[in-house]
Design the sequence.
């Protein structure tokens, strides 16, 4: 059942097309939210963000922002408009971006979603375990997105003591609703 508040609020998803993050599509598929997956000018993106109440940003990134189309799609130039929105920041090191710019919302730190990241962070995991973690994470976010206790509920459902990737990622899920 969809909450009335969810229906009334406009939501924009920024998810630059990338096969390695396709599993995140589950979060917004079928919700009727506006999705930006193809390249868009910074001016048009800024306008889209300004007219929506909720912003969901998904994909690869770094502490400087969300990466897409070979540049930082979301960077410090978007901070002022993001400060007044309900936001979800899901990319590697989004925590540093959120904390540096004193933003609010749900966000992730360095989360493992592919083999190269598991190797880099010395997490011994099979491709199947990485896939399982990705599926569990996306499903949990889909189920709890924009709920008052999103972080706690996601952490409660996103558990598997035998999956090293899930155990690593569990400690990289945050929220800061100032």
Sequence:
């Amino acid at each position: 059942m969809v909450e009335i508040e969810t229906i009334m609020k406009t939501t924009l998803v920024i998810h630059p097309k990338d096969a390695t993050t396709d599993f995140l599509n589950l979060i917004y598929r079928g919700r009727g939210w506006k999705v930006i997956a193809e390249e868009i000018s910074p001016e048009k993106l800024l306008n889209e963000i300004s007219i929506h109440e909720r912003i969901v940003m998904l994909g690869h990134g770094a502490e400087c922002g969300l990466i897409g189309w070979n540049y930082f799609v979301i960077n410090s130039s978007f901070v002022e408009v993001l400060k007044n929105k309900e936001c979800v920041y899901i990319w590697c090191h989004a925590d540093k971006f959120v904390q540096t710019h004193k933003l609010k919302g749900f966000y992730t730190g360095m989360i493992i979603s592919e083999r190269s990241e598991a190797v880099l962070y010395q997490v011994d995991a099979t491709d199947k375990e990485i896939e399982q973690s990705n599926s569990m994470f996306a499903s949990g976010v889909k189920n709890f997105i924009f709920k008052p206790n999103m972080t706690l509920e996601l952490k409660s459902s996103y558990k598997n003591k035998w999956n090293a990737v899930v155990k690593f990622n569990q400690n990289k899920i945050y929220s800061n609703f100032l």
In short: The chain has eight helices and nine strands. The radius of gyration is 15 Å. The mean pLDDT is 95. The first strand starts at residue 11 and ends at 14.
